[in-house]
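Re: that backbone. Tokens:
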């Protein structure tokens, strides 16, 4: 009798576990719903994967596309940006993000950026953090080979080649490592957010009775400078600052 009870319990646990869809099953279901045009169900399946602690560029990208199809511009821009944090070189994501941003109401003039900074960011975003790290390790290996050539070669010509080759590799290694570190910092930073409310007031201080400075609309990106209780200080692309409630924005 005891064995029967144990077997029954084990069977019930097994059936319960098998009844819970895996992330792969939810992924397939979400994609199926998306293809069928059932975007609400697709969003539900994709979020279930996120709730399970799993995420990826493709998951964020598909979720953003589903929200865009539903007309939820704020959420679509949010998840396109999350996808770009993981894979900044994905042109499809950037293209769809640009389309979504074109549907936002706010037209904010961006403060001009020094051309060298803009160029360096473009180069850095051409590959992921992992790719920059892998490339820097390859260069480090070549650097060690040149160093060995400099130390062990008997002819002065080969020693010069080893020296100058190692010097060039040092410079390249430092540049690649800086790109990898910068890309990683961008992935880890949590100071950007997207406006979720249809129209939110940005105030002069963290107080509901404070003066309204300007209004932001759904989908606008802001940078969070500081937080006080349920308020956060934000700055937009043109440099304007103010305070808004935390629940008006969602962190990227």
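Recovered sequence:
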């Amino acid at each position: 009798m005891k064995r029967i009870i144990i077997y029954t319990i084990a069977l019930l646990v097994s059936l319960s576990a098998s009844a819970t869809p895996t992330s792969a099953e939810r992924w397939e279901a979400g994609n199926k719903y998306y293809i069928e045009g059932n975007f609400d169900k697709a969003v539900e399946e994709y979020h279930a994967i996120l709730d399970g602690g799993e995420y990826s560029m493709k998951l964020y990208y598909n979720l953003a596309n589903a929200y865009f199809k539903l007309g939820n511009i704020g959420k679509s821009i949010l998840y396109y940006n999350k996808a770009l944090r993981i894979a900044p070189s994905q042109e499809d994501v950037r293209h769809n993000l640009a389309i979504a941003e074109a549907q936002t109401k706010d037209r904010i003039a961006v403060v001009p950026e020094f051309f060298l900074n803009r160029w360096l960011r473009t180069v850095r975003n051409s590959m992921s953090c992992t790719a920059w790290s892998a490339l820097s390790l390859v260069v480090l290996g070549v650097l060690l080979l040149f160093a060995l050539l400099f130390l062990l070669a008997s002819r002065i010509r080969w020693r010069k080649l080893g020296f100058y080759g190692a010097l060039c590799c040092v410079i390249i290694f430092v540049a690649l490592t800086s790109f990898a570190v910068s890309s990683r910092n961008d992935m880890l930073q949590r100071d950007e957010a997207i406006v979720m409310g249809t129209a939110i007031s940005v105030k002069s201080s963290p107080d509901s009775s404070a003066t309204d400075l300007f209004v932001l609309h759904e989908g606008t990106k802001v940078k969070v400078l500081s937080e006080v209780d349920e308020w956060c200080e934000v700055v937009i692309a043109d440099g304007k600052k103010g305070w808004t409630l935390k629940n008006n924005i969602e962190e990227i």
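Residues 34 and 64 are 12 Å apart (CA to CA). The chain is about 60% helix and 15% strand.
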